[in-house]
Amino acid sequence: HVYKFHKDGYETFSSWKRVWTSNGKSEPSLKAFMADQQLPYWVQCTKADCGKWRQLSKETHLSAALASSYRCGMKLNSVKVEGSDACSQPEDVRVAGVTDSWWLSMLILPPLFKDSPASPFLSSYYPDCVGMSPSASPSNQPPGLNTHTTVPGLSPYFQPFYQPNECGKALCVRPDMMELDELYEFPEFSRDPTMYLALRNLVLAAWSRDCKEVLTLQKCAPHVVVRGLVRVRCVQELDRVLYFMSRKGLINTGALQIKWPLLPESQHNKVLVIGAGAAGLAAARQLQNFGMQVVVLEARERIGGRVWDDASLGVTVGCGAQIVNGCVNNPIALMCEQLGLRMHTLGVRCELIQEGGRVTDPALDKRMDFHFNAVLDAVSEWRKDKSQSQDAPLGEKIQEVYKTFLQESGLQFTDLEEKVLHFHLSNLEYACGSTLNQVQHVDYSGEGVTVTSRCGSRWSAQKVLVTVPLALLQKNVIGFSPPLPDRKLKAIHSLGVGVIEKVALQFPTRFWDSKIQGADYFGHIPPCPEKRGLFSVFYDMSPQGEECVLMTVVTGEALSLLRDLQDSQVVDLCMSVLRELFQEQEVPDPLRFLVTHWSTDSWAQMSYSFVKTGGSGEAYDIIAEDVQGKLFFAGEATNRHFPQTVTGAYLSGVREASKIAAL
Description:
One of its GO terms (biological process) is epigenetic regulation of gene expression. By secondary structure, the protein is α/β, with parallel strands linked by helices. Helices cover about 35% and strands about 15% of the residues. Helix 7 packs across helix 9 and helix 10 runs parallel beside helix 20.
């Protein structure tokens, strides 16, 4: 019998070792076998007035379902129920020691989770490199391959983890490595991050699977499946991880309905938010969800700032922001998922139409697009080793490189090819753009901050977040006492304020359908360089529907052509272009129209920021710096990684809410 026992044990170990070796990267030692297969599970009583930890029998396997429902004395594997007073039994004395700071440093092996919600996301990794047990993750292919992981039922826009050898994806984390802010918050895991990675990956995966409800300790803890007393410590650390990730806006963010404060100790803090655009609203929502008292001051009689929709033409037209650029891990996509809103994916097809009505050969467009991007690459390479004093305007440098290219290559472009090149230049100019109760003054000289409006109203708080557009900061619409630091003022004035305007037209018929054939937009090849930003792209606001609305933009130097025109004259100019593009048919007069005026809007005076000649991206970071821990700044012009976008503005608000909560 003893021989058979040893033989069975050896065979069990050998079988485990084979699985571990084929899936994992760490050594399949006897200690690892004991931790992974032999130690008993510990589980916490779910009764509100108990919460004691109990050791399960060696034969009892822990599942998320069991952990979610366990109560002291529960009958498991024919073990006798201990009676109604089971919760009164004392907790094992070993549990108390787990909470001591030294306990973590005494661990011989890091915990590796089984059946983690993160497992389907991370099948391309060695499980033990991302906090999971190799014995619980049999794979049909060798780990470490760069494959795109798809999780059934998950939105394709939710990709929280980098896959091996992948880079450059926005708002992703490496599942096998701690980020700098994580190391700062959890320095005790710098030597061996395995436990932290296991917990963080679990939390991110759980949030990606269900972002419509608040992620709590009660929801996550049952999924921590690991043998031994280390499970007690893992659940304790999980609470800290959830707190940190909520504060950073990585989870429990967006359009959630919060029933109780996420950070209860923050309730005594009061924050003023100046501006109810995307950044201000994002920050206010986060801070309120944390439990803080928040007052938002807005000059207009509406919220949204430069996000402003108009439905007067029978379909929603974004007078400001409307297109989501890059949907993967975008908070806008997250909120659409939470609210059940559908995003329409813009197609890649864009017919370029010449004045006269002829559709341009796509091969010609593709060829000129290639040359245009080659010129941009050359300009980018030139700029790399130049100081700010050696900088040159982008438009001038493009023309210089372009002329050099023509001279050295001996190529000659046709008149049409030149015009197509100017169409692509107009798109580049489009990309650069080139009750606040009329708040007038922010005084942060004392212990707190006082904000005063022009009419004399005053508000006081511990902290204030300024989210007004860059143009208003440049024009000193708001005064500060003491004045802002010179470093910040220099950064504010080193960025440019870009402007684009939109024109939307409602027609009685969809006259463009026969030529455009269901595309989301079509391009207008400019007749001359001076007009390259004048109605360069027309968007069909209802490409698969019955609405008859086109929206177009005016950018760059073409804006000067509209400066002294009435709205009706702008529409006449736009109609003359459309009639040139569709000469072969009768183009009806518009039934209704709208024309934006962001450049003259008192509380915007711009569309979005850009880096001026001689400036640098560092200016965004400097504008984002807080002053004395009391005065904070958010907005698209404070987000170096995602400027010029609602996403950037939103994320900057979340960022500042996290900073305010951390102080």
